[in-house]
Amino acid sequence: MQVFFSEDHRLHFPQAELSGGQFVTPYERPSRVEYILRQLRERGFDQPADPGPCDMAPIRGLMDPGFLRFLETGWDEWIAAGMKGEMISATNPVRRTQMAREPRNIDGKLGYYCLAQETAITAGTWRAAQSSAASAQAAQRAVAEGAGAAFALCRPPGHHATADMFGGYCFLNNAAIVAQMFRDGGADRVAILDIDFHHGNGTQDIFYERGDVLFASIHGAPEDAFPYFLGYADETGAGAGEGANLNLPLLPGAGWDQWGSALDTAIARIRDFGPQALVVSLGVDAFKDDPISFFKLESGDFTRAGAAIARLNLPTVFCMEGGYAIEAVGINTVNVLEGFLN
Ligand code: SP5
Ligand code: ZN
Fold it and tell me: The Histone deacetylase domain covers which part of the protein (predicted)?
């Protein structure tokens, strides 16, 4: 399986994440990928290939122009405005301010485009996010050209980012970009399977009213888990997208019995949908020792998940998402890939 990865992920490493009222070292940190790279190497995967530059055309087609402008120029505006720290949002549109419009002030803009304040933007964040999307795009091109599957070792992750908001450690929605590229390349229907512990609110939002991209997600129930405000089972899609959104929320403590049967349900729905390509939002934070999650998967369960996904027999792009039990992140991620290949 081809692997795509850019060292430019290092350009994004905020000092601070707001967690439980404290500033802590971000859970989503550069060292996560070292553990994945090491496992790939030790277990005989191809040397990761640099993806080359990010192709902005498919991203501009999918994302909000004001949001992209903010990501591109926000840091410079922030510094020019005399701000001394990292970009951490403090004021956001909420209930009854849904008519919000983009302010001129950069602090206001930051709030306008932010969906979760744990995520800071720094000088290198935009370039890192582009390099992450570039890996996803390179993996898509490899699969479109006939590779059965490819792994994009994306960092920062993507599935919480909407067309016009960042947060949840995400800036550009890599899985959504890949799905749209398959569509633009001639696939009539594309499925996205999101196995990250957290609901892929961004991906759901981007495709919610579309019938051509199925989104299926297994995640911590929104009553109990980030991103809290989306991910309920009764969110089934709208308009042309009615029926093309499948949320499978699970309660704290869910292990393979429940998670594996939710995976079977998602896979059956994907099979019924009849897609020509599959995108997997591959988070491994459903692991029992993940510090910010509450599922109980064992490392071996990730191998079983990969094997189950392989039975769909679809051209597949894996995009890395979350996973914060850092020593186990490599093992669990590569278990999914190996389970898929074997
Ligand atoms: C891609 C991804 O997995 N994003 C996850 C973002 C989660 N951000 C908020 C987490 C809040 C968890 N609070 C943890 C308290 C730990 N003691
Ligand atoms: Zn996650």
Answer: 28-336
